[in-house]
Amino acid sequence: MEFFQIKRATDVKQAIESAQMHPDSLQGGASIRFLAGGTTLLDLMKLDVERPAQVIDIHRLPLDRVEAIGGGGVTIGATVRNADLANHPPIKSHYPVLSQALLSGASAQLRNMATTGGNLMQRTRCVYFRDTATPCNKREPGSGCSAIDGFNRNLAILGTSDRCIATNPSDMSVAMTALEATIHVESTQGKRSIAIDDFFLLPGTTPQHETALAPGELITHVTLPAPVPGNRSVYLKLRDRASYEFALASAAVVATVSSGKIDHVRIALGGVGVKPWRSREAEAALLGRAPDATAFEAAAEAALQSARPQSQNRFKVELAKRCLQHTLKLATQTA
Amino acid sequence: MNKDPKKPNTSDDDPVTAVARVTRRSFLARVGAAGAAVGAGQLPSAAFAESDAAPASDAPAKATDGTRVHVRLNVNGRDHQLDIDPRTTLLDCVRDHLQLTGTKKGCDHGQCGACTVHVDGRRVNSCLSLAVTHEGEAITTIEGIGRPGALHPMQAAFVEHDGFQCGYCTSGQIMSAVALLNEPYGHTDEEVKEAMSGNICRCGAYSNIVSAIQQVRRKA
């Protein structure tokens, strides 16, 4: 691990001013990093993938509350621990897909450490990104992609480019994408809000840029809109072992059925996309239709139509389709 | 000599020889000292325990010079003042600076659970946490929950149920299991397995670990 200076911030103002004061506060190029749970950042610093010159400890910022907001939604502080969010009674009852996604990720210890903001900033598990001995366009722009002709079994099939096929590993962000969350950020330049689907970027020719965060910006909280009345939501995760493993394919579905027809549905896929993958195509295929196997199949076909599998992950196309079909069934079946 | 195999020889009155008192660790330490002439001056930090608990401070961790950071840590109820490299993980801090070597380093990347300790009563991977970020928090290691002759019920249950073979993952398993009993997980064997999935045991003592945990829960 390379040497860094560490500073503890006790409030948001202090944190963003510390980030601003640094002469070269590039979050993409990472000479400065906010440290909360550390479960991604410290791991990557040990591998020399992350090499910040300055670390700002934000884990005790007063952003650790989950609160109801006007209109029926909820605001989630950036330093709320994943375990606390998953077990928060209103989250469990009104946004079960989020609770299920969080509890399907990592281990109990990691969920006690990892935060809401940190989970959004989680980086890919691509083995070449994590190995500084190999070329990787995300880690070292222009060096090439080792995964395209290499070990790519667990990598993305949706949204890839010829520069990068890395998968976003988060479960939480997939559920938040289906819930149409908004990410709130703050810097010395002011505050702004970003829809979660715009927060995550496609790799294109610049895979080093993963989010819409500007240099020095700090995630302060995430808001979820009020749940659609009568909705049911489900997260289903398929992986190589039963627990403590990243998704090969996952699906988050929020759906409302009334008078035998699907009249509201939001779909996001995990484990298969370069970002948490909102599928408006699948949603369009379902809207106004009866929740039956034919409709689910059409939705799955629509969701994976643009899939571009690699040499080792063709199986993910079928796996993701079946994952989505089963999740739709769970979210719409009547008891 | 030791009539009760569950009870280690720890009393000064025990008729054990000096050779029997040599542990693997003390042996390695002596060989290391003789072989490499490592002196006390080369210890990785200046660490000392305070007898009186100092009041907690919210002051930011301050650098003593360019390379060391002064930090006050409360471990197993004792306050320690340390000047450490900011890169020091909580795991390396308790093992190398406080000589609390019951906490084990397995993967050092949050994938195995051998390094599990409690921070303010919650289980965490100490390998993925910087020591300097824990000022003002209560850290508990395996040494803080029980000791020979006064085992924590979970330690006793692991012995009774053979919840280990080589023992390397055991302190992490026990710390995880103790915390688990205070967490909102279900009580079936399946739910215990899920809640313990962050602790890998390469010997495969899993079913006995589950038995030990369930016994402690029933008696609690």
Please outline the helices and strands.
The complex is a heterodimer of chains A (335) and B (220).
Chain A: E1 5-8, H1 12-21, E2 32-35, H2 41-46, E3 54-57, E4 66-68, E5 74-77, H3 82-86, H4 89-94, H5 96-104, H6 108-113, H7 116-120, H8 172-178, E6 182-187, E7 190-195, H9 196-199, E8 218-224, E9 232-238, E10 249-258, E11 261-270, E12 277-278, H10 280-286, H11 293-304, H12 315-332
Parallel strand pairs in A: 1-3, 2-3
Antiparallel strand pairs in A: 4-5, 5-8, 6-7, 6-8, 9-10, 10-11, 11-12
Chain B: H1 24-36, E1 47-50, E2 62-63, E3 69-75, E4 78-84, H2 90-97, E5 116-119, E6 122-125, E7 138-140, H3 153-160, H4 170-180, H5 189-195, H6 206-219
Parallel strand pairs in B: 3-7
Antiparallel strand pairs in B: 1-4, 2-3, 3-4, 5-6, 5-7
What does this structure look like?
By secondary structure, chain A is an alpha+beta fold. Helix content of chain A is 28%, strand content 20%. Chain A has twelve helices and twelve strands. Chain A has helices spanning 12-21, 41-46, 82-86, 89-94, 96-104, 108-113, 116-120, 172-178, 196-199, 280-286, 293-304, 315-332, and strands at residues 5-8, 32-35, 54-57, 66-68, 74-77, 182-187, 190-195, 218-224, 232-238, 249-258, 261-270, 277-278. Chain A has a five-stranded antiparallel β-sheet. In chain A, strands 9-10-11-12 form a four-stranded antiparallel β-sheet. Chain A has a three-stranded parallel β-sheet with strand order 1-3-2, covered by helices on one side. The longest helix of chain A has 18 residues, at 315-332. Chain A is globular and about 60 Å long. Chain B has six helices and seven strands. In chain B, strand 5 (116-119) and strand 6 (122-125) form a beta hairpin. Chain B is of the alpha+beta class and 220 residues long. Classes of the chains: A alpha+beta (335), B alpha+beta (220). The A-B interface holds A 1, 3-10, 35, 37-39, 42-43, 46, 55, 57, 59, 83, 87, 106-110, 112-113, 242-244 and B 58, 60-61, 63, 67, 69, 85-87, 89, 108-110, 113, 116, 122-125, 128-130, 132-133, 176, 179-180, 183-185, 193-199.
